[in-house]
Structure formats: structure tokens, C-alpha cells
Amino acid sequence: MNDLANGRAPLVTAGAANGGPASALPKAPTGIAGLDEITFGGLPRGRPTLVCGGPGCGKTLLAMEFLVHGAMRYDEPGAYVTFEESEDELAQNVRSLGFDVDALVAQGKLAFDYVHVDPREIEETGEYDLEGLFVRLGLAIETVGARRVVLDTIESLFGGFTNMALLRSELRRLFRWLKERDLTVVITGERGDGTLTRQGLEEYVSDCVILLDHRVTEQVSTRRLRVVKYRGTSHGTNEYPFLIDADGISVLPVTSVALDHRVSDERVSSGIPRLDAMLGGGGFYRGSSILVSGTAGSGKSTIAAHFADAMCRAGERCLVLAFEESRDQIVRNMRSVGIDFSAHLASGLLTIEASRPSLYGLEMHLAQIHRGVGRLRPSAVVIDPISNLGINTLDTSAMLLRLIDYLKSEGVTAMFVSLTAGGKALEATEFGVSSLIDTWLVLRDIEAAGERNRGLYVIKSRGMHHSNQIREFLITSHGIELLEVYAGPDGVLTGSLRSSQEARERAATLAREQEQQRRQRDLASRRAVLEAQIKALQHEASTLDAEIAHESIQYASATDTIERERRAAARRRGGEESA
Amino acid sequence: MSIEGANGQHAGSQPDDGGLSAAEQHWELRLYTAGHTPKSVRAFNNLKRICEEHMPGRYQIEVIDLMRNPRLAKEDQIVAIPTVVRKLPQPLRKIIGDLSDTERTLVGLQLRSRSS
Fold first, then answer.
1. How large a percentage of chain A has pLDDT more than 90?
2. Which residues from B are below 8 Å from A130, CB to CB?
3. CB-nearest partner of B96 from A128, A134, A136
4. Which of A292, A407, A514, A546 could disulfide-pair with A414, CB 3.0 to 4.6 Å?
């Protein structure tokens, strides 16, 4: 806890962060996670601190932890004077938080005294003082050599005695007495109407006042702690959420406001190769924060599941915090898209913690995340969804900022799933966390031609080249498939519009091919006809040739015949003529 | 229960817790002090006077100095000083202050009812 004590508290105005004059004031660490950071080291040593708040706000527990941690870790024994619960009740109450008070008492590190004042059995008959209380306190302190004292709740004295003036002067004497002994004291007080405490105890305790608050907003309870006053030292002035669980009190957050976390150039795959390609080829940066936002049913959880699956496949631990579905439901649903979580669960790489978002207050969830990260040391955390985590208030977003910051400082790659309510701008993140997000994927429904299709685009991704295209994606039985965008002359088309366009194009191609074939056939047949004609003409030519030959033969023979006949005639005539 | 205007006489006849009449009861009282202070001296003197008046010979006063026996403060749940504890007769009663208000002391010891 000492290292935490030296760390800076969150969201403290600059300048106050490094102690400076604060270190001059000696402090007694409470050992309560987070509180020592807000107070820069603990409660003022040797002085009283008032812890006030309504019933059930955790005053007694805080006081008890202060003593128990003091006795166990800081070698400062403590004395606990209770005015409300008997020692047995008190020990029993804190035993449930894992503090073995009886053992500490046996070791002489803690002393208890139950001061019970019952006005029904007391009659005031004149002058008196509260020396008996001093004697008892003195005895308890002496028994263990206490350095720390708790008075819980000293206001009960006001119900037991009627002489208020005397009581107040005795209280003043008591605080002087405690200061003289250099004891670090925690005094608890019930919150009054418009005042910090019912009996104005703050009047006596001017060094440090811590206010605890337990309020219920929309049926969800949240606990807050605020350091109202801390004289002589700087302190965190915000209201800090805190929680009480099996480990006692922890005040959130345990993070630093400084932007000094180391960054990594290493990439981790999103589990979807084409998405990796959209992100410049490698996926997300290790240790970065990824926001996946989108409307209901747009496939956010499936994207997250792919990521978790990819981390586990790479042999790294992944913590999934689910606020919408149970573990088995997630395993079953993801199996339907081809992601088998059961093997990762069995190997211990994957941890799914599912709880109803409304079951606890927001700070409980945040603490659960803190503890989960602290225990499992995962490489990646998936929170599905953050939009369910709390009421949309300022402190919700402040807490989420701190959570993101915490995960970054731990080098954990974090994926946050955020549901965008219908009708809201897709770019509107409910918590204003976008400034801390490194990579932001938006899933949107593209409605056209009577159907809904899924589109994905990268709004931003720091430090890497990323695609500016809207990709259509399908959720198939083997996971998410990003499709090539159809970017034709009619713009980007998705779904059946894209496929009908593609069909139309296929038909047109086919028609062109058929036309081509037809024309080829046509030409071929024309050529064939031509060839036939050529053949016919050739035939005709050869017939003519034959005719020509025949003709010449006939002519010759005719000529011959004519000659012969002429000669014959001449012969016949010649006898007469030649004679 | 209480003896009205008893003045030490055996007037009461109602049976008490112990089955004895009030007049026969034995009174066991403890006076807690823290050191020898004027208040505690006054308280002792007042207590003794009242006892002599109301239960002569039937009372016992034990003075406990918490400075010497601080543990008894815890055991007997003492906060204010001085405190007189009526151990007997039952039930246990506590009276705080120097007992200078005799009326209230008598009420506290249940020797007189509150209304009177």
C-alpha cells in the first residue's frame, strides 16, 4: 500500500498532486485502498479525524479497517471504543470481512471497550463528569500501547445524559486529552439534518473530516466518499465512489490521472482478417482501447467475441465481463457463429464474468473489473456493454474515464461494447468516452429496399492507417465475414440490392456473350453459304470448261465433215469443171 | 414497590422481588469515584446521609476508586463520575452526580416514585 500512497490521486487539480507542503504533515496510512491516495498518505497523525455519514454508510467499517490495518501492517496497535454495538457484535460484523479481531485482541494489538449508556437506568442527581470514560479509554490504550483510537459513535453519549453543556465541555476535554497523547483518532458521527453530524461534532474535530454517503439512484445504490476538509494538506476534493465487499472498503479509483502510460507498437488481431486489413493490416494496438458501438442487433457482441477468441487463440488471457447474457448463453450463441469458447474456458485463458448491471451500483462493477484485472492479469478485457453499466450521469462518465485510464495504464487491450439507443446519432457515445478511445468501430444498419443489412466502418483509429470504407458484413455460421464493398456507378450497394445489381450485371454479361456467339454463328453460316456458292460457281466453271472442250471438238469434227463434204462435192463437180 | 414517605419506619408491607418486605431489604450500594475529588466526597456524604435516613443498619456502601481499579469501570459500565450503583435490591439502578439533589436521588434509588 505504500507504493499507492506515494502515487498520485486521480483527478486532483494540477500542482496539488505532488504533495509539496503536504509531506510536512505526518500522516497515518489507513491501509484502505484508494483512501490513502485521496488523502496523500492517510489521516493526520496525532489528530482526530471525523468520519460522518448516514446510517449504514460504512463509518464503523472504515474505522475498524483503520485500526485493523494499523495493527497488522503498520505496527500501530489500536483501541476501539464502541458506543453502539457490543464487542461481540462488532467482532462478528467484521469477521465476515475477513478480519480476525479476536486474534488481534489475543496478540495484544487491539483493545475493545463497549461503553453502554442507557438513560432508562440512570438518574442524574447533581454535578458529575465523564471521568469514567477517560479511565476506560486510558485503560484500553494502555493495555495495548495504542497509537490509534476509534470512538464509534461518541454521539450516543448525547442520548444518555441530559446536561448538554457539561457533555460538550467534557468532549472538548476528551479531544484535548487525546491530542496530548499524540493519538491518531477516528471519530464517527451520524449525519444530521443539514449538518455534518447531529451533535455538531465537527466543531471539535477541525483537522480532517470525511463524509460518507450512501444514496440510491434509480434503485441502484452507490456509496460515495468525500474528504470535506483536511487542514494543512492538499487532498482530492471529489466525491469518490467506494464499495464494501468481501475484502472490506475500497475507494475508487486506484488510477493515476497522468497520461504517462507506456504504449506499444505491437498489434493484436481483431480475429477478423478483413477487419485487420481495414486497420492498416495488423489489427489493434496492444494496450489500446477499442469502442464498438452500434444499434441493437448490429453484431457488436459477435465482433467482441471474435476478438476474445483471437486473444485466446494467441495464448493470451482474456476477461469478458458480460452484463447482458449469462456465461452459458454466450458460449451457446457464439457457437452458432462458429466461435467455440468452451475450449478457452477449459484452458483457463478465457474468463467470463456475467452479472446483471442493475444488481450492484456502478462502483461495484468497476471494482469488480479492477479486482478481475488485478487477479487474472489478462491481456485483454471485453466489457459488453458499457452502456448498461450505469445511469447516464456525469460521475458515471468520470468513472468510466478512470476505468479506461486504469486499463491503459495496465497495458490491457480493452474492448468496450456500447449500445447506441435507437434514434440517437451513431457517433454519440453516452459517456463521452470517445476522447479516450483509440479505435472506434461503428456498426450500423443500412436499411434499403425493405431489408436491413449490417455495415461496419472505422470512425477513427489512432496511429494507424485505416480504411474509410463502409464494409458490409455478414454473420455466418463460421463467424463474421466482411464483404467487398460494391461500389458501382449506382453508389455503394448492400444486401440484396448489391446481389440484385450483381445479378443484373451477370445477366447483361450473359446476354452480351450470347449475342456474340449468335453473331459468330451468323458470320460462320454466311461464310459457309459463301463457300457453297464458291463451290457451285467452281462447278459451273468446270462445266463450262467441259462444254468449251466439247464445243471445240464438235467444231473440229464439223469443220472436218464440211471439208470432206466440200471435197466430195468438188470431186463430183470436178469431173465436169476441171475437165 | 417503593416506600412512600417511609421515614425509616416499617410502613411498607408490599412484597418485593426478594419476597421480603421493603423494610427488611438489605441494600448493597457502590459508589464509583476517580480519585479523591470534592465531588466524590460530597457524593459519599450525601449517600451516607440518605441511607441513614431511609435504611439505617440495612445498607452497605462500597467505594470504588477507578484510578486504582480501572478495570471495574469497564465491567460495571461506568461512564460518569461519581456514580452510585444499586446492586441490591434488584433491579440494578445507576445514579450519577454528587447526589446533592435529594429528591432525584430518592427517585433514582426507587425510594420514591417519580411523580411525587
1. 23
2. 79-81
3. A128
4. A407
